Amino acid sequence: MADRWTLLVHGGAGMMTRERLTPEQDAGARAGLNAALDAGSVVLAAGGTSLDAVAAAVRVLEDDPHFNSGRGAALTWDGTAELDAAIMDGRDRRAGAVAGATVARNPVDLARAVMEDGAHVLLSGAGADAFAVAHQLDQAGADWFVLPERAAQLAELKSRGGTFDVEMKYGTVGAVACDTHGHVAAATSTGGVTGKRWGRIGDSPLIGAGTYADDRAGAVSATGSGEFFIRAGVAHEICARRRLAGESLQTAADGVMAEVRALGGSGGVIVTGPGGEAVWSFTTLGMNRGRASSSGARTVAIYDHEESSTDA
Fold first, then answer.
1. Helices (H), 246-294
2. Strand-pair category, 286-293 with 298-303
3. 190 in catalytic set
4. Which CATH number is 6-303 given?
5. What whole-number distance in Å separates Cα of residue 233 and Cα of residue 221?
6. Cα angle vertex 223, ends 181, 36, to 5°?
7. 63 contacts: CB under 8 Å, gap ≥ 6
8. Where does the chain have alpha helices with state H?
9. Helix/strand/coil for 116
């Protein structure tokens, strides 16, 4: 067993600039990213699995209202929180996901329960909620998920005519990790886009679009304009470029994000591989992101050019 591990987290990509964010928003996002890195790093430093690490990191971000998942999620047109999440184990490509969940306090835990049950990969809506109750997961209601700030954002969107807010300042959360055994995992969680209607589902819970993990290539968690990430199959495509074309993870991530941009979309990804690479790539002005490793190095960043990623 090697003693090397890597963890990356993200908290969304979009129009984050020093001019747009208040000092409080900047500090809150950085504190949340650091807390998520702490939670996942404890698991990995103790020799735990990448799967446990990404679940621990995402759980922290779901409980943090600075981001768009769990507490403080973006609201639907009707003012409710419909939550999506996915988790995937690179060892055997087991995966679990939920879409439109409304009662599980931590959607990533619900996605993992679906994976561990093994009968299905993706559950939605009332079925996902019933599964959460049947498996006795911690429950929460609107008083936990729905915050006044998000209600105000929904009201503003409606006042502009109801166009989807695809350049959210707050965003989807995710984590990818490589553990000391060289296994990778990925997890992603989101409230979707403000004002979503008709049961809209984005890329986050779709295996191969917003979330993917394969020990033969890498682990990816995405954030951005989900419809374009679905069309490009972003997470799987990055891994396929690595596995089949031999591209570095940075080259693969940059190439696929260029495809997303060409289609008209925007956003970003975090990526690691069985060699412990630590990569991110984004086309937006900023992406809430962080990485930590067994070397003791740690980076937390928000804005473009604040810090570059590295292939280890």
1. 249-263
2. antiparallel
3. no
4. 3.60.20.30
5. 12
6. 50
7. 70, 71, 105, 106
8. 23-45, 50-62, 107-117, 125-134, 142-145, 148-159, 226-232, 234-245, 249-263
9. helix
Tokens 């954030």 — which residue?
223
- The pLDDT, as a whole number, for residue 311 is 42
73 dihedral zone (left: phi>0; alpha: psi -120 to 50; beta): beta
* CA gap 106, 44 in Å, rounded: 21
Query: Which of the residues 6, 102, 172, 272 is marked catalytic?
Result: 172
CB atoms within 10 A of CB 80: 15
For 21-76, the pLDDT digits (tens) are 999 999 999 999 999 999 999 999 999 999 999 999 999 999 999 999 999 999 99
Taking alpha carbons only, the member of 175, 204, 158 closest to residue 37 is 175
Cα Rg, the chain, nearest whole Å? 17
- CA-CA distances (angstroms) from residue 99 to 57, 125, 128, 308? 20, 6, 7, 33
- Do residues 66 and 25 touch, judged by C-beta distance below 8 A? yes
Q: What is the DSSP letter of 102?
A: -
Residues of the chain above pLDDT 70, percent: 95
Can you give the residue ranges of every domain in the chain? Answer: 6-303
**Low-confidence stretches of the chain (pLDDT beneath 50):** 1, 166-167, 170, 308-312
Give the model's pLDDT for residue 309: 44
The Cα 49–Cα 168 span in angstroms is: 32
The answer for residues whose C-beta is within 8 angstroms of residue 4's C-beta and 6 or more apart is 178, 180, 276, 293, 294, 295
Q: State the average pLDDT for the chain.
A: 93
Between strands 173-178 and 94-101, the pairing is: unpaired
User: Which token pair is 192?
Assistant: 């979707």
What pLDDT was estimated at residue 312? Answer: 39
Are 77 and 85 contacting, i.e. CB atoms less than 8 angstroms apart?
A: no
